[in-house]
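The material for today's practical consists of a large collection of protein records. There is nothing in a record beyond a sequence line and a structure line. As an example, a complete record with its sequence and its structure tokens follows:
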Amino acid sequence: DATLILRSGSTLWLQGESLLTIQGGGWLCVEDGASIILQDPASRLILDDGSQMGVHSIWARGHNCLKPDAIEFTGDGGIGPWPGNALTFDGTDDRVTFPNVDELNLGDFDDFTIEVFFQSYFIGQAPTYQTLLSKRSFRNMSEADGFILGIWPGEPFTGKVFAQFNGTPNYLSESQNLFDGACHYIALTRKENEVTFYVDGISYGSQLSYRSLNSTSPLYAGYDPPEGINFKGEIAEIRFWNLARTSDQIADYENEFITGNETGLMCAWQFNQASGEVALDSSPNLFHANLGNEPEPESFDPMWYLNRECEIPNYFSGNWPDKFVLDAVPDRSTKDTIQYEPKLKAWPIPFDREVTLLIESDEDESMELKVYDENGLEVLSTTEYRTNEIIHLEKGLKKGIYVVKARFGNKVKEMKIIKMN
């Protein structure tokens, strides 16, 4: 699981018949402004056995000296999501409190873009709507100030993105059910009076709105003050822009690292710290936020989730989501059929009492499942399960980090799971 990180401004040279191999699920992370140069045609870069290259690498944008035909992916190696951190919210009272600044009080005719990277821990539906962002101080029947952005809980709009500006009506996307255990990237834009929803880089309908987003309340992530309703899951990044980003910009940046100096960027909380009580804003405005309500430890603090690896489906580079429907995004691929590698999934992560496991595979096979603690000691072993079968796992596991390994046929899949309590 080794990781090689090239920091901004650095260069990795492979000269002569050089060979660089990243193995064992390791990462090669190239920050914006760094380069890899293969000077000789015989030089090779190999990512083997599930190893990944972070998509923030500038070579992926075609701006440096790494030649794609000099890269070799073996096993499950390939271009992967950028490994980073996130905040995990307990669904009860966790929140992040952002400063109440003029830049976030958007008027009736202001253009804007709001982006959130998240993963819900609910599967199928939720007991209440899930608050991603809220900036409103009151709600009285159909009247309210500010705005809320969240996920609708149940029928007839189960799992769809919704937004509300200064009270009713609700603006709803036409997207799929986002209570699916996957990571997602949503964007909400307004240009003049047209509001557009994007999910994972794809537009899902537009509606008209001239309503203001102003409120005396601070902005919250994971908490809606008037209703006291929270969010259960992970939030990895939040961005605010003072312009309506184009569909191409939204598609291009769904898996991209931002520098903080992009035109129109007002705030960008990337939650990449490993600890502490403050969420840093990487924009020049430096609108840093507090975990919980105050800049000291309290029960309202979400937990840091470190070294999180969660892929946003990328429809433009071949990283297809698990249940991708080709007709949903016509003319964006020449692929006629899509073959899936078997995948080990678990949700929710982290978990409190029980975690659900699933091996998705084209084959129905018997499976050996083993669970190891962080010291490598085996705590559970069973052969009673099959691929494509839902597995509920708790078995008295204590708080901590575990590794799940599933062996079926000639394949082995593994992943880390975290138990919070």
